[in-house]
Amino acid sequence: MDVLSMLKHSIISDDTNPIMRDFEIGRQIGSAGPEMVWKIFEAVRQDDKKEASVFIFDKKIADKLHKPRRRETVSEILRKEVHHLSRIKHPKILTVFHGLEECHDSLAFATEPVMGSLANILGNFERMPAMIPQELKDYVFIELEIKHGILQITEALSYLHCTEQMLHRNICPQSILVTKRGVWKLAGLGFVEKPKEGKDTYPCQPWTTKIPKMAQPDLNYVAPEIQLEKSCNTLSDMFSLGMVVCSIFNQGKSLINAEHNPSQYSRQVDQMHEQFSSVAHKMPLSLVEPTEKMINRDIRYRPTSQSFSLLRYFQDTVVASLQHIDMVDRQDPAQKAEAYANLAQIIPMIPRKILYKNVFPIVCSECKTPEIVFALPVLLTMIDFAPRDDYIDIILPEFRTILCSNKPVQATVYILNKLDVVLAKSPLEDIKAEVLPLVFNTLDSSSLQLQEAALGAIGGIKEYLDDTIIKKMVLPRAKSLFYRSTNVKLRINALSCIDHMLDSLDKMIILDEVLPFLTDITCQDPDVVMHIVGVYKHMLSDKKFGLTHNLIASKVMPSLIPHTVNPGLTMEQFGALMEVLREMLEQIDRQRRNKMKQETVSIAVPSRGSLKMTGNDELQNDISQAQRLLMVDVGSNKFQHLHKTVTSTPELQQRPKSSPKTNKRNHSLQSLGMSLVSISQRWVFFFTFQDEKSSNTLDKPMEIIRRHSLVPPNSGQPTISITSEDATSPDQSRRPSTHSLGPFSLSVSGFGDYHFRDRRRPSSQSLGILPISLFGEGGDRPRRPSTHSLGIFPLGCFGEERDRFDRPRRPSTHSLGPIVVPDVDRRGSRGSIFGSLGIGEIPGVSSQNQRRPSFQAFGESVMQLFTSK
């Protein structure tokens, strides 16, 4: 190596600077220093190909200085500058990559990559080539850049004043370098001074024409006390900084234009405040007053560097985060983590220019170190908020390198967890070339944490995978991870991965691989159970998954039903489980019924929800009897014969007399039962005979509802009288009763017209006393009013009992009257009057048309209950 270096050195002529051996020099991009003597070139370091900038001073510039001593003075000041820059290490002071190299014709040193000096950006292109870089000409500062840049120079001065105990003496745009990241760095340390021993004052030399201007500070930025009073301190640098602030808002021009003439300087210092008034309106309002104090001739009004940096103007969230990022190289891991966490939260607030020039390079460089875990959240947040064009053109080239590099486990896991952000912005070819290999390589990792993250990412990339990859690579790894892991979170991720893949799997794979896997799971953890339920619910949503009712009944439900008694389930989880089980039962019921209907078309299948229990024949017979209607052939001789037979029996001819004491005791409830029966039957008769008349057919069975009236007996069974309508004449109106409430009289004839007679006078207590006649006349014959009559209906049938009702009834205060029932026999029920009478089936009338009384039976039961006491 030494031989090669010697050979290379021998080849290079004495006119070539040695720095050329270590750096590849590119084009000139700027100039800086006193009188802009430093030419700035793009460069790349040979060893690591790291980007840099090389500053070169061509000694021929000083050749016009005729005296050799003056030429050497200029070189000495420049050497002093490089020396101090190499020694002082601070984030806000220009960083030197390579120390000073000198040859016969030049001085050179290398630094971090810079874009140019502040003077160049403000429009000073002195000692620049004819082809000025376009980015330098078009560069315009935004407000946040200016705010941040002024604060950075202030912090650099604060470090020099407080820590290094040095006075800069040449604060001007030529001494401030702007890096390619947009950071303002302080340079031009060739005129620094240290205080005299034991004193707070610094030695200073006013500007003079006796010394070359290349060897002196810029007169337009020199403090008045230095030039006029030959004294200086750290506040002199604050005056120069105030003049720099004014030049930034004045198109790069200072408030003083002395043109290297001390006399003119003295005159313009007195007019400086008038010049400031013309510039102040261009400055932010919160910066005007502090700047005015900084350029005050009285140093007592000038703020120090520390107090100036605490201005409200600099209290900005973005500026504070950028300040922390600038110091990240000097921070410990905990401070780095906090700085990057704060930066990630304000990414949307950072202007695009600063984001990609300042923040993005730092984040990318940090992601290429072992401490990538701190910077990755910021990078992924930038990807999330970046426009797709910016992502493809600016971020993606660097992100490809990060994806392919070796990373800590935590970094890979974080990228996989945020993979949806990357997929949303990345082109398809980059997804297949960069993202999918990352996921598959992670699946093959031995780390369970990496495998878990990879399985979680499968749901996002499933649309980019074909069935073969899913079947042979993803599904077996998901099942294996579930079986090998005891961690609940890992198992849940495996189930989630399978759930995401269902739509991409064909039916046979689901039935052969997925369904047996699910039914064999015996884990009792509630979260795992809920994810299993979720997979089943997904499979129930579409027939394409092949989950038939046979599989549900024989495989799925037997594995789920034991979980219904899992004590670990919450109310919500239990509800979700039961919902899925009900859905399965519904599907079984639906598919089973459809199949049975197809197989047994001629056999009636019970409707859903009506289950007929066996072993209850008596209940079924009662229900059937209750549903039948009594059908009577009113024109048949059999019915007349039955009527005569029943009415001629001794039990019916001898009606037992009721006891007043008994009637009085049972009067209320008996009256209620009588009234309920009367009201129900009166309307049934009306509509029944309406249908009979409309049909005009005597042979058609007519549905007759029986009317009941129970007489509270003194002893024995109640009697039933079946009579004809001859008792009263339908042409004569009934005499109103004082207790009658019925608004009309109704006469119903089986073979004649039915019609409404003259309205009767309403009474306040009547419950509808209606004379109803069948097949005869005389139904309207007036009856003597009874004060307690509750609906006694004289009813005659075929003239058998006409005489019993021709004469008026003797009013009785407790009489409830006899029950008059023209009806056919029906099957008696417990406590029924017809059951006790033993009236059999009427010939010619089908037993299916007979039905049990409902409303009437209730009245009978009530009366029987109280008459038995």
Keywords, separated by commas or semicolons:
alpha+beta; disordered N terminus; 3-stranded antiparallel β-sheet; single chain; 5-stranded antiparallel β-sheet; 869 residues
SSE inventory with pairings:
Layout: H1 2-11, E1 23-32, E2 38-45, E3 51-58, H2 68-87, E4 96-102, E5 106-111, E6 114-117, H3 118-121, H4 134-137, H5 143-163, E7 176-179, E8 184-186, H6 224-229, H7 234-248, H8 262-270, H9 272-280, H10 285-294, H11 305-309, H12 317-326, H13 333-345, H14 352-367, H15 372-385, H16 388-404, H17 409-417, H18 419-425, H19 428-443, H20 448-461, H21 467-484, H22 488-501, H23 507-519, H24 526-540, H25 549-560, H26 571-599, H27 617-627, E9 631-632, H28 637-647, H29 650-653, H30 660-695, E10 702-703, E11 720-721, E12 746-747, E13 755-756, H31 802-806, E14 819-820, H32 833-837, H33 855-867
Parallel strand pairs: 11-14
Antiparallel strand pairs: 1-2, 2-3, 3-5, 4-5, 6-7, 7-8, 9-10, 12-13
